[in-house]
Fold this protein.
Amino acid sequence: MNLILIHGRDQQGKNPSELKKEWLDTLKEGLLKNNLELPQDINIVFPFYGDLLDALSKDIRNPNSIAGVIAKGSIEEKQLSFYFEILSEMAVNAKIDDKKISDLVVGTREKGPLNWEWIQAIIRALDTHSPFGNFTLEKSTFDVFVYLTIEAIKSQINKFIMDSIPEGPTVVVGHSLGSVVGYNVLQELTGHNIKKYITIGSPLGLRSIKDHLSTPLKMPLSVTGGWYNGYDERDFVALNALDKINFNISPPIVNSNHVRNKTDNRHGIIGYLNDAVVAKEIYNALTS
Amino acid sequence: MALQNIPFPFNSMMPQKKKCAVIIGVNKTGGLAVLSAAVSGAEDFNKWAVSQGFDTSLLIDTDNPVTVKMIRDAVTGFVNEKIYEQMIVYFSGHGILKSAMDELWLLSEAPEDSNAAVNVQPSRFLSRRCGIPNVVIISDACRSAPGNTQLSQMSGSVIFPNSAISNTRVNVDILYATAPGDPAFEVTADEATKNYCGLYTRELLKGLNGKVPQIIKDYDFDSVGLVGLLNSPKFSIIPAYELSEYLFIAVPISAAQINITLSQKPDAEITSRLPSYLSLLESTKTELVHKSATQMTKNGKWLDGDFWNFEGLNKDFKIPKTEQINKEILENDIKEPQVDDNSVPKKYDEEAFDSILQALNRSSKDILTGFTIVGIPFVENHYSKNDVQIFSENEAVQIRIRIYLKTYFLDLPRGRLLPLAVLPGFIGTVVFDKDEVITVNYSPSSNSLNAVNGVNEINSDVEERRAVIAAKSKGGTFRISENIDELIHTASYLRRHKNLDPSLGLYAAYAYSQAGKFEDVQSIYDYMKEEPVPVLFDVAMLNELSVPEPDKLVLENASPFCPMLNQGWSYLTINPEFYDPFLIEISKYRVAGLWTTFTAEGSAIIKQKFKDLNI
């Protein structure tokens, strides 16, 4: 049995081995709450794409690179529009209204909401609500933006993940942007037996994310044992359940909002994998 | 073997896909005769759709008016679900065809509310961005001339969301109850009502419900991994192409059965291919029943007729295979460029074709930039004689333009006005037939730099081909989709010299746009913008509709100041705020026809706006 762990955004520059260890230690903590241990014969794969995504992202400003050519010069307007859509959705989830955002606008305000001052104010408001760190939130949004909107980058990341998936029965766990990458990869995957797809802290319920997925949305054919989605209702990235309203696929995704993520921003992987129910779900999938 | 329609829910082993339908029936629309069968047609269609497992939204005017908002909300709701593999938009009611590819479905509050109509072509254009892989638009509506000023000034609205360009390739099929073209223009909406009896929907449902054995196809879903089960029962399907072929044959016969003078010829453009289908049927082992086309008795009752006994129907009628059709297209004679659709196989207007060919080589060699007008004897000069000179030569009116103009306004009989793009170094040949513009073709002038470089060595094939396209366009059947590449490649001088004939560029941009080939529209635009002459407004507009970040400057730099083809105006309704408000205002004052021509009233407004006409 294989266990594929797909990490989220803003992971560039980190040591893949340490990151993998962090994930597994946290998962073991969650299993321990069930008096369980990670089964011995599991082939654990941690495809670290953080540096690749970072390198490709930097490339879009290089007019001689493939990504740069595809981005066709200035991507500012596209970026602004994407940031506005996704951050506004998150602000609504976090119950931050326009008045609060308006109060945080610094400097001259351009007419209309679609401007960088407004975007920065949303980021400040979100950070006040759940401390990500302004820089982190902006970088993370950029990662999601380039992955979803630049086809050349998306296909390279997807291929990198796809190539890491070995033959045989497999459980895939995707966190945050990793859950989006995982969904796209599983849609393309043929001839594999994915026993279960487990998403945690997933933004797939956000409309701004779904707008950039291939349609119709559907359960990947490679997933034979269902899809489980765990989230914390205070995690404004993930609080839209992947249900009939937000991700109406058949067979339906099993959602659980029970998680009480203990990380500051309610979104960190540590606060998800050490959850007893999430850990048990992974264990059951691995041993089924 | 005969087949039966299995009510939903299907046998669990049947291949299932998520499907949705917005079904509209409007009997009454302001000022026009009340229809009797539009609502019932919509209701019957809804029954079929529900039986096939469609999620439906039925919008009929039995109790309340049907509005654009209701339709747009229903369409947007389904689109936003992002789970559907097929969407049908069905309309039954009054329709008008303002000009080629510019048609409206009239809703309850038309014509008082000029937006209370569905603008079909831009809606179809936007449907390509909706992310649902197969969109089927079914129009059981008249395509007749507006008949009065109020109707002709309607602009209509789009019903698909103006979404970003989707990653998902969308095939759009469109089935019309009637064909466009000259006959349609002769029948006003009111007159058409008298004959409207919903027989198209009757025949449509007959086909969809599996009662026409010839159009039912066995399809091995296992082979494409749609079922994944061995030994699954046999299923049969009715694809859109086969259905449209049946309707093409059966509807005129049924119409003639009702009244020999009633002519109704359906029309369709089908781009979807297997495994897309409309109906799914489970096979059973009984004998075929050769009944299909519908007859209506004199007392108004509908009967199932014997399909084979209709006079005029070839008893050996078989649905041609799609591959066969495509092969025929490829092998077709240059004189008849084909379209990949099931439109009425109408010969182009041979008179118009002859007029266009006779207009060849009539331009004056003394003109660098300007126009050659063939088919009207006299053109009034309302410009300064230093700027624009008009004279006769080669039995044509020659117009030499010596100043920079973005638009040259050609005065026509009855106060009408024709806006023309002025392309430095090119002469536009404008050909009239019975006071109607039938083509505007641009060729490099013989003393331009292009001529020195040999660009104007247009071979006769290209000229002939351009003439055919123009002549064919006259009746509103201008649709070139699948073989547009062949069209471009045949005009090989375009590629050899790395520049693009503006006239063909114009046609090709529309054809690519209608076929959803947005990258090819951009390619046409990219070619044209490399030239030292302005890009035609239509090409610029279609390009800006095809790119993620449209730029108003592109339109400001284009020539003329408005779309050259009438069908271009309907695209303005996609995002009216993007365009100069004057364009939206003036759009109401157009004469039906292929080329934009303003009415006398519109002409007066334009002349008031651009007092010296120097734009």
Observations:
- The CA atoms of residues 38 and 244 of chain A lie 33 Å apart.
- Confidence is low (pLDDT under 50) at residues 67-73 of chain A.
